[in-house]
Amino acid sequence: MITSTWGSESLAGRHPGLPAELLAQLPVDEYRVALILHPNVWSGHGAWQIGVLQRTAVEAGLTTVDPADGWQQALTAADLVIGDHGSVTVYAAAIGRPVLLAAFGPEAVPNTAGWALRTVAPWLDTARPLAAQIETALTDHRPDRYEPVTAEAFGVRGQALPRLRETVYDLLDLAQPKQPARTARAFGLPAPGAAPPRSLIVGTTLTGRQDQAFEVDLQRFPAVLAGEPVEREDSFQHLACDVDEPDTRLTESATVLLVRSCVFASDDGRRRTIELLADFPGARLAAVSSENGCLVGLRDGTTLEVSSPARPCPDPGAAAAAVYTCLRLGVAPHGITVTLRSGTSAQELSLRALGPAGADQSPASRARTSTARGLPASS
Q1: 59 within 8 A of 197, measured Cβ to Cβ
Q2: For the CA atoms of 252, 257, 261, 264, what is the dihedral angle to 10 degrees?
Q3: Considering only CA atoms, which of 302, 364, 362, 348 is closest in space to residue 327?
Q4: What is the dihedral of CA 10, 190, 143, 14, to 10 degrees?
């Protein structure tokens, strides 16, 4: 969670590109990034300007949180908060979240709890790789780290809202309404800009092999923020795009085309992969969700069924990544088990080739998939 107050010395004022930088460096299967901006930022700059400034980050998966209704839930859900001298950063410390400071303006009053936070909380160095700093902050954090600071900031915990309400109505010389005060929703409204990215740079690295069982590390990053692909031995990268990606430059360059929006019957799914490969001659694989798993079509006419014992329908992008890795290794993707690992999570996928009429392919047909024809190292 990124949180910023307002002003030129705030996080948004000093590092407006931080959301995009985080999304570029954090794998989408392991992290989500959200942004809470102070209401004065929205008021001073307007939703249009903020939308333009954060457009790339939103396309890459940034969740923008309503600062008037929803930030409480987002803060509670956050595993780590990157902030400044704003009040939400202090709230994060008060509930025991790991905090990293990326800015701290002179508006903070010396000898207050908020001021003390700048000397206690670690700082995020935006000039250095961000992922390692975040992992260190998560690993080294103690929930009671900021207790001496926040004990000075908050009193009568749990009673602040009714006390403030009573005081405000007394100052206004008004009777309090008879209906109970409105409190924050337990569950916020759907956040705008929370859609996952439609195009990803997919990195796969072979980490283990025993007979027909492979272990592969999977890391995916938003393509709109990715740099030049870098490959090494047993480590490959490809561009995977949803078919509804609005940027045609990406879909026309994609190695893998995906359909995530619906689940196909087996025969319909196979026809759809053929259509996709015909419509996008630069693609090498097409993957769709089917009733029994995922169907991955190859340009030589082979159709592979990818299934998982843990999930009825694996992610088509993950299924295609498993197939692509086998092809790049020169392995026929039939009768293969691939365990994909993303951070601390793992899923086991089974790959098998289907014949023209829905039966398994003949040995002669399977042999045609034993080499990654038409898959240059840069695909």
Answers
A1: yes
A2: 130
A3: 302
A4: -10
How far apart CA 322 and CA 37 sit, in angstroms, is: 39
C-alpha dist (Å) from residue 287 to 275, 296, 299: 11, 4, 12
Type of residue found at 276: L
Q: Let me know: does 114 contact 99? Beta carbons within 8 Å.
A: no
Alpha carbon 173 to its chain centroid, in Å, reads 49
Is the entire prediction scored with pTM above 0.85? no
CB atoms within 10 A of CB 184: 13
Tell me the one-letter amino acid at 158. G
Write out the two tokens for 294: 């995922």
* Angle formed by the axes of helices 87-94 and 113-120, nearest 10°: 70
Contact indicator for 86, 4 with CB cutoff of 8 Å:
yes
Q: In terms of Cα–Cα distance, which of 178, 21, 6 is closest to 105?
A: 6
Residue 223 is given by DSSP the state G
The DSSP 8-state label assigned to residue 288 in this structure reads E
Using CA atoms of 9, 12, 15, 16 in order, give the dihedral in degrees to the nearest 10: -140
Rounded (10°) CA dihedral 40, 46, 51, 53: -70
| Tally of residues, the chain | 379
Beta strands 213-222 and 2-4, pairing class: unpaired
- Retrieve residue 96's tokens: 């025991």
> Assign residue 224 a region: left if phi > 0, alpha if psi is -120 to 50, beta otherwise?
alpha
Find where tokens 């400034």 sit.
53
What one-character DSSP code corresponds to residue 198? S
Give, for all 379 residues of the chain, the pLDDT tens digit.
Answer: 999 999 999 999 999 999 999 999 999 999 999 999 999 999 999 889 999 999 999 999 999 998 887 899 899 999 999 999 999 999 999 999 999 999 998 888 888 888 889 989 999 999 999 999 999 999 999 989 999 888 888 888 888 888 988 999 999 999 998 887 666 666 655 555 567 899 999 999 999 999 899 999 999 999 999 887 788 888 999 999 999 999 999 999 999 999 988 888 888 999 999 999 999 999 999 999 988 889 999 999 999 999 988 766 789 999 999 999 999 999 999 899 999 999 889 999 999 998 764 444 434 333 333 333 334 434 4
Question: Strands 63-65, 81-83: parallel, antiparallel or unpaired by DSSP?
Answer: unpaired
The three-point CA angle 28-33-34 to 5° equals 150
